[in-house]
Design a protein that fits this description.
Blueprint lengths: L2 H9 L8 H7 L5 H14 L7 E2 L2 H8 L3 H11 L3 E4 L9 E4 L5 H10 L39 H4 L10 H18 L7 H11 L5 H13 L3 H4 L5 H7 L14 E3 L5 E3 L3
Antiparallel strand pairs: 1-3, 2-3, 4-5
């Protein structure tokens, strides 16, 4: 068998189906590292006719040709594009699956990330905000004489409440969610850390009444792009400068008529 025949046998017929939305919509927005990790997850799931698969960070890094830290950062960057079921002591590696229900809002949020990849220091810190938990690694017997897992200083510290500080953040979110439900007849899921930060940034420019007014204009907008989105807080943040109030036409000045009545002057 020649080298050419061997290569040909390797390429055909073993294939992995990659959903078109990942290639058409998501791939142009991803840096190389996250794109490699996304394709590895597709390979380990759809490539073996599975919906999900447990993949350790070491295995993920080797398959993608990345360092372990780069693989961790890539998982962090992908966010809602993948579903992550946390592993840990007694549970094994994290379990990954692709999220094919990608919304226009999520693609827009991905575009605004740019090419930067957020840092990440632990397996627990490299999953989406909702799924993030503390993972305590069991120390090897050669590393400690104690049977309890070792816990780092950073793990002992409680996670700060991101909504603390400005009470207007909570007030706006507490108003936004039920008002959204009343208007669109469906619940609105609030992601505390992410949405809290977006509202915090908006409140640096707009006061609370104006921010509520712009949310109302977002919901009433007939803009084709906005109509295809969930009209949530992420879209509010991205479209805030376009949600300006319509200017009222200026009225002409008043003049006196021969009878002494006031009337509007016309050019």
């Amino acid at each position: 068998m020649t080298r050419g025949e061997l290569v040909s046998r390797l390429l055909i017929p073993n294939t992995t189906q990659v959903p078109n939305v990942l290639l058409d919509k998501v791939m142009p927005l991803l840096p190389p590292g996250p794109l490699k990790v996304l394709l590895v997850i597709a390979r380990f799931t759809y490539g073996f006719q599975r919906d999900s698969d447990k993949i350790g960070f070491k295995q993920l890094a080797e398959a993608a040709g990345l360092t372990r830290r780069s693989a961790i950062n890539a998982v962090k960057f992908l966010g809602d594009l993948i579903n992550v079921k946390l592993g840990g002591p007694g549970r094994g590696a994290n379990e990954y699956s692709l999220n094919l229900n990608v919304s226009e809002a999520q693609l827009l949020a991905l575009r605004t990330k740019g090419g930067s990849e957020a840092g990440c220091t632990s397996e627990a810190g490299c999953t989406s905000e909702i799924q993030r938990k503390e993972v305590v690694k069991q120390a090897a017997p050669s590393q400690t004489k104690y049977s309890k897992p070792s816990i780092g200083v950073s793990q002992k510290r409680s996670r700060p409440n991101r909504l603390k500080g400005d009470p207007r953040i909570k007030e706006f979110i507490d108003w936004f969610a039920p008002e959204y439900t009343k208007r669109f007849k469906q619940p609105y899921h609030v992601r505390g850390g992410k949405h809290g930060q977006l509202v915090k940034d908006l409140l640096r420019t707009f006061d609370l009444p104006e921010l509520k007014n712009r949310a109302l204009r977002l919901w009433e907008s007939e803009d084709p792009f906005i109509s295809r989105t969930d009209r949530g807080i992420g879209i509010l943040a991205s479209q805030i400068n376009n949600l300006v109030p319509l200017l009222q036409p200026a009225q002409p000045p008043l003049t006196n008529t021969p009878k002494g009545d006031l009337t509007y002057a016309h050019g």
